[in-house]
Structures are given as structure tokens and as C-alpha cells.
Amino acid sequence: MPTTVRLRSTSAVDLTIAATASNLGGNWGGTLSGGVISGGVDDFENGYEYDYLNRLTSIVQQSQSGGHAVDPKLAEFDYNRASQLTDLHRYSATTAGSSDLEVHSRMAYDDAGRLSSLTHGSSAISSGENWGGTSTLPSSLGSSGLLAAYTFQYDADNRLTQFSSYRDGTSTAYGYDVRDQLTSASSTAISGLSQPFGLASAESYDFDAGGNRKSSGGASQSSANTHNQLQSDGTYNYTYDDEGNTLSRTSISTGEVTLYEWDHRNRLESITEKTSSVGSVTQKIEYVYDAFDNRVGKRLDSDGDGDFDRDEAFVWTEGQTVLRAVDSDGEAASETFTLSSRYLYGEMVDQLLADEQYDDGAGPEISTTTAAATSGETYWALNDHLGSVRDLVDNSGEIRQHVAYDSFGNRIVEQDYDASGTAISSSHPDAIDALFGYTGRDWDADADLQNNRARWYDPATGRWLSNDPIGFAAGDANLYRYVGNGPTNAIDPSGLAEDDPRWWGDTYWFQVWGWWGPHRWAINRVTGYHSAENLAIELDRQLRANDRVAGVNGCDTNGNGVIDPLERLDSLDRLNRSKRLSAAESARVKTLAESAIEGNAAMLGGGLVGSVSRRTSHRILAQVDHLDELDNLGTHVASGKPSQRVTAVPHTYVNPGHHVPGTPTYVAGKSVLPTNHVQLFARSVGVRNQQGKILRWAREQRGNQTIYHRFEPHSSGEYHWSGSTCGVDSRGTNRAIALRDVPVREIGRQTPNGGWAIQE
Q1: Which of 354, 574, 657, 659 lies at 20 to 30 Å from 490 by C-alpha?
Q2: What is the C-alpha separation between 173 and 160, in angstroms, rounded?
Q3: Mapping DSSP to helix (H, G, I), strand (E, B) and coil, where does residue 381 land?
């Protein structure tokens, strides 16, 4: 793929994509007979900017010089002190202007750090405003400016118990069994709001000991064999091959058959629908994959006559589909792909921000050598807490498509609208052809299946079509069960292991490719150890990887930073909330956590598949205060006792010179003052140590490296820089502060104050 990645500045990375033949695999899918795609014109360029904590602050998508016209897009991100995403502004321009603001999304969180409300408006939402789940709307938006909004309530086990939707006018209550499997979902009307789509029918589920669905809606539905393979769901009978892939689905009432074919890598290769096992073909779909198992092509024979009438091609980069091209006639010997959609994502996996679409066949040809002067039309995606795309809104503030899902992702409402807001059918020329849906993954309406990268998901059964490629390492003995039957509280964008979406903007929304990365995969793997003994052995092994990966002061032998204690606590916090740990196991986790912090162990996951070269998450664990098992870990200063928090007040910062080589006051053997020492002090926070002295601390991120800087006061009250966790002297000798002496948790709880008097 001709992708150019270059460093524009120290705080931004550009991503440039060219829509050329090789992006579609050259001889597309190996299916062309004499037709070769050639030519190609540069398409879009994405520019990324980050703040000093390495958090993404803006994305700009625009055209390249000499390339196709691209609808300009800008997304800006704001965070709270816990590095959770609080505001997302999207503009139809490359610079932020009030007249170009298309969508303002605001997130609010409860005291445990959980998402409590998500509000989408077509204009700026005033500070502190959010939709509260009633008929009262934010005054800054009113009835015309509020596009979509949701509120969330949780129980003591962090399970979603109440979900309210403004556009649907409904509030849904959820119930669970002792294994956190969803057992009920019941919707009621929100007083004062209309229910334009009616009330969703109540859901109820029952599961056997293996987590297989036994009934739905009170009716006996499913039976599974000893391999947890679904044999019958009351509507269809199923068969499997020796690899555990679904081979057939046969209608009990009509005898109609759906056949599934898989390649040698257990990738779904084709789906054939027939009137019966020996009857005629009514539809056939074929899929094409690249060497990295990304689905890069789809071919559709919609009537089973043997001729493909539609082909689609997908361009991938960084684990996401960024371009979609379509050949409307599907004739293999004369492929004419035209650009159908270009997508813009946020930093989180499957966080779709915008879908720029062309009418069918109206986009620029992939094989053209002439740049298109006309861009497509941009639709802004409005997501819910799971990342599901529920609404698409145009640049005029009109909702153009609304989708509602049941708990397992079945579409219970799908309504299109024209540019004036009038409801239209999905076959109308103005209807939107949206690729992404439930949990932000791409939906194949022809197959009624969802592509979650490594596997295909069937929302009708709440199960995967094939078993988990990583087997029991994902932590579930049932290799077909979707997210442990807890779809309201978990997602699985990889098709490999579930993850928790409820803490937006932090480590629970993992980074692009994070689902494949060793750190997140290792954490999911650890949650799968069901006995205290096995869990302890595995955690011990991972924590001891410190000897190979990192030195004792937070810097490894290659100069890279390690996962800091906050992220270690985050990992252990996740283990506790996984609900797979007994009291004894939780106690063991606590012991290992204390050992990890006191001993400066590097990271969970580092010992499984090598060191992790990705930026450290900067989420501050506000919710650690609310954990029963981890609450008493303390600050782990040198004495091992918690430090007292101190409210910062302005002080004077001085540079006496004894950390600056070459000055008369330099003291040999002292660590060297960093060049950004003034800026570091300006964002430092105060923590009182055991001797009653208020030290000031600043946290800095240098690429993958997390560094803590210490500032000490003179008797006069003036502060000076006095070392860091990666300090060296003028000869390069290690003069670092031990990470165990850094009050990490207390630093995380403070907000830097301004107003410092600086004296150089």
C-alpha cells in the first residue's frame, strides 16, 4: 500500500493515503480475467496533533496537492484531569470556526469514572450541560439542536442497569445473572418525550452451564453439543466442520439452506443461499482477504444466476477501513471501481467520526489519472457508549439515518431520511449506504452478519460463526459465546477477546491495533485464569519480566519508558472488575500489586510476547478510590505510608545553577537540569512527605517514556528542580530518583495550578 507516514513536528504525525491500484490489491482478489487496474490519484491526508501528555487533540482530513477533492474535516478533543474524553467538536473545515461546527459531543462521568451521559448537539453545548434522561433538554441546544443523547446508570458491580435514549424516547432496564450474563432488557417510555419508533419488545434470556442460550423471550430456543456448538435455535439447524466453523444453516420450516465455506486459515470465504440442500442458488457472496486477514473485497451475486452484480473493495491502514470502492456491475473482465466512501476515525478503535460518501458510481474512478474536482457528502457519525453508530447527520444538521439495536446488536429500527428530514425507504435514491453499525463494526446486510476482523458475528444468535482463534487464552471456555453474554457491558472489535467500553477516552478504549498488541491481549489472557494458583503463577511470571524489560528506575536499557504504576494499577483494577476473581484471587492480586509497585516491576504483558513499543496511557485512576481490594495500596513513598495531599499555592521557582554543568554553582555528580524545567514546574503539583515538607512533582511523557520530576523548596520557600526518575549527571552516570519514592497516586489526584513567579 503506498502509504506515506512522516513526522511533521514533534507533536503531530501525518498520514497520507493514495488511492492507487495496489491499494486494491492489483489483480483484485485474483478474480480478474485480463482486466488490470492501473493509474490512481492521491486521495486524503490526515494530520494529527497531541498535547504534552501525548493525548490526541485534533485530526484534520483534507485533500492533497494534485489529488482528489476531499470534503474538509476537523475533529478536536478535550479531556478532563483523568484524561477521559469530555468534548469532541467536529467541523466541516480545516480550522475551527463557530459557523463550521457540525457536531459537538459531550461526555460526563460519575465518581467511579464511568460514562454517565453522552450528548450530541448540532451547536455548541454550554459548559456543564448534558441531557439528563428526561424531557428537559440542555438550554443551549433546545429541541432543534439536540441530535442524540444517552444516559447510563450502573450497579455496584459496574454493570449497566439503565440506558436512556433521547431520540427513541425510551429508557431500558437491564438484569443479569450471577455470571454477569444478560437475562432481561425492558423498555419504558420517557415521560414528556415521543416514541416515534414505538417501544422495543422486552428481551429475556436463559443460558445453560456452558453459557449457551437455552431460551429467548421465554420460549425454548437453543441446544448445543459438548463443544458448545449450536445445534438448533428453534428456527434453524446448524452443522460444523472439524475446525469448528459453521458449515450450514437449515430452516426448520422451509428447508432453505445457507452454506458457509472457509479457507485453510479458517476465514469465511463464501456464503451460498439455496432453496434446499439440493435446490437452486438464490444468492452468493464471496470474500477476499489480504495477507494480514483484513477483508479487502466482497462480491455479490444477488439472484444466484452465476453473475456477480456488485463488487466492493476496501483499503485498510492502521487496522481500519479508510476507503471503500464499488463496482456496480460486477463484471470481472471489466472492473470499474469508483470511490464510494472515505472514513475518518478518532484514536479509539472503530471510533468512526465521519463517513464521506458519493452516490453510487458518482465517485472518482480508482483507475483514473485525473483528480476529481468534486468531493463527496460528509455524514457525521453519532455513537453510543458501545461505539455503535446510531445516527448519521449531514452538514445541515439533519439526521439522515437512525438505527436502534437490541442488546445483542439486532437492528430493531432502521430509518432513512432525505435532506429535508422526511422519512424515506432504504431503497430510496437518497438513502445512505452505511457500512458501520453495532459497536462500530461493519455490517453486511446481504449476509446479516457483522465482521469483527478475526471472526464473523451473528446477532440473531448472539454467537460467533467460528471458534476463537486464540482458543481459551481469551478467558472463556465457550469459544462461540459473544462477550460472555454480557453485550451491554463489553465489546469485541477484534473477534479475539472482549474489552470494556464504559470508561471512554482511557485505557479501556484501547489504541488502534491495541486489540492485537501484546499489552491488551496479555491482560485479557490473564483474566482467563480461573484458579488462584494459576492466576498467581501467571501474574508472577509477567511481573518478573521487569528483569528483562526495564531497569529499577523506570527506564529500560534502551532508553524507553515503562508502563508506570498508574497503568499497572489500571491493569489490576481491570482484573478485579472482570468478575472472574474470587476473594482469594483478589487478595493475591493485591499482594502482587504491592510487589509490583514496591519492586518497580515493569508491566503486565511484557513477558508474554516481548516488550511493548506503544505510548503509555495517561489515564489517572480516579476510580481506584472506589475499589474494595485495591483501595489500601497507598502511595508507596519510601516509608511505605500514604502521603497527605496538599492544595497547591503559588510559590517562586528559582534556578540556583547547581544542576547546570558549566556554571560556578554546579555540584559535581548532580543530575543535569532538563531544558524544559520551567514548563515542568508550571504544571507541578504539591505533595507533603513524611517529614512534613511539601515537594512538588511534575509528570512528563517523552515518546514511550514516563518521567517524574521533583522540585524541592529552600528554607525561603523558593523551589528548585532536584532530580527525575530518568536523571543522569554530566558524565551520563545514572542519578535517577527511584520510582518507588514517587507518590504516583497523589500526583494523579492533583490539578496543576498556575500563577507561578519564575526567576531564572
Answers
A1: 354
A2: 8
A3: strand
Which one, of 633, 588, 584, 649, lies nearest residue 740 by Cα?
A: 633
pTM over 0.85: no
Length of the chain: 760
Q: Which three cell numbers stand for residue 707?
A: 518521567
Q: What is the largest CA-CA distance in the chain?
A: 94
701 vs 629: CA distance, rounded Å: 29
Non-local (6+) Cβ contacts of 756 within 8 A are 650, 651, 652, 653, 681, 682
CB atoms within 10 A of CB 447: 21
Report d(CA 374, CA 359) in Å as an integer: 12
List the one residue out of 448, 460, 535, 462 whose CA is nearest residue 492: 462
Question: Residues 261-312: pLDDT tens digits?
Answer: 999 999 999 999 999 999 999 999 999 998 889 999 999 999 999 999 999 9
Give CA separation, 194 vs 170, 293, 328, in Å.
Answer: 9, 45, 40
Q: Which of 46, 48, 2 is nearest to 21 (CA)?
A: 2
> Where does the pLDDT of residue 633 fall: very low under 50, low under 70, confident under 90, or very high at 90 and above?
very low
Q: Report whether 69 contacts 375 (CB < 8 A).
A: yes
Calculate helix-pair angle for 532-543, 583-598, nearest 10 degrees.
10
Q: List the grid coordinates of 499.
A: 474489552
Cell of 315: 483499503
Say which residues have a Cβ less than 8 Å from residue 619's Cβ, sequence separation at least 6.
82, 83, 84, 503, 505, 506, 507, 566, 567, 570
Give the whole-angstrom CA distance, residue 243 versus residue 240.
Answer: 8
CA 76 – CA 60 distance, rounded (Å): 9
